[in-house]
Specification:
1 helix; flat; 338 residues; 2 strands; mainly beta
Amino acid sequence: MRRSWLLVAVGLAVGGVVEMSAGWAQGAYCGVARRCCLRRVCCVQPCCQWTCHTVMKTCAVVEYVPKQETCYRTVCQPIYEQKMVTECRYVPVVKFRECRETVCRPVYETRWETRAEPVCRPVYETRTKQVTYTVCRPVYETRWREEYYTVCKPVVETKKVQVCTGRWETRQVTVPSTCAPATCRPTTCAPATCAPATCAPRVICQRVWVPEVVEKEVQCVRYETELRRRKVPYTVCRWVTEQKTGLCTYTVCRWVTETVTRKVPVQTCRWIQQEVVRRVPYTEMQLRQYQRLVTTVRYVEKQVPYTVTRCEPRIVYKQVPVHVCCPVPCCKVSCCAN
């Protein structure tokens, strides 16, 4: 509610300021009051001259000022309590009861009976008979056949070959000798008494190899192949059938029927009635009480403060410079003479 009244007041103030601004603008045309008729000048020729100046204008500005307010809200706070609660529930209980019943029980008895039964037993006999049979015996024969084979035969030939040989010869060779130094007597060392140095050549014996080429006859052996023929024996086997007679022994079985007496066990069964007492289980539901710890919750209302920031509008009047330009008339005669 308070906020709506503030908005209405701000609207009215802004409307008044706008109306005042409009009246001021009409009265301040070129810096002269509205009543003056100088704005309409009766001139023959219009002139295009303008004059500009700065005028201070009062403007209304709405500013929002933040304001903190403390508000309260209702909060439900849970309170937990523990208490003992008595509960009832059905519990299954197994019980037994006695039941009498008449049942039939089998009784088995075994007795021996003498019975005569025909029995077949085998009788084996050995017999002999003459049998003719055919046998195959091998007969081996030796035969001859011709075959060819190759033989390598040596052939001796004589060839002449050149053999490089040589001999050693002893020859005398003259070689220059080295000069011997001059000899002096030990008592006198005058140059005249010294013997001159000797440089005579020497003759030495030297062995020299003299090569020679000699022709010799050499026997060579080469092998020539020769095709020959010979007879080779081989054995051939063939089978010949023959009829033979022999004795064959075999066994014959025949069945002979005999009467045999034996004791056979015979089992009989008879039923005897008997009264039996047995325990039969059954389940019975019993109601039992027990206590249980239960946690309950109850809610308590509580006022919790909280801070709210609101912006309140405020009107501020400020002086604003405005640049105004208006035309200047060419003649000073006014049309408002009357």
